[in-house]
Amino acid sequence: MRGIDIVLLILSLLLITIVVLQSSKDNAANAFSGEKSELFNNQKQRGFELIMNITTLVVSVFFIVTSILALAL
């Protein structure tokens, strides 16, 4: 296994973990009842949610760049 493959494996596991830790903004019960509350849709993210979204973005970019490098090498 090449070093870049190990980095890709670590980044993919980290990305999966970060996405699973994020909280869902939709309620599953509303998906089946057809009810959609848009009262809180325009709230800014703060604290933990903001950190998780930024971390997800950064890890995703690293994953994409590493994937492209792995194909090129």
UniProtKB/TrEMBL annotation:
It is found in: Cell membrane; Membrane. It comes from Candidatus Xianfuyuplasma coldseepsis. This is Protein-export membrane protein SecG. Involved in protein export. Participates in an early event of protein translocation. It comes from the Bacteria. Keywords: Cell membrane, Membrane, Protein transport, Translocation, Transmembrane, Transmembrane helix, Transport. The lineage of its organism: Bacteria, Bacillati, Mycoplasmatota, Mollicutes, Candidatus Izemoplasmatales. GO terms for cellular component: plasma membrane. Pfam families: SecG. It is a multi-pass membrane protein. The chain crosses the membrane at residues 52-72. InterPro entries: SecG (IPR004692). GO terms for molecular function: protein-transporting ATPase activity. The keyword Transmembrane helix applies. Belongs to the SecG family. GO terms for biological process: protein secretion.
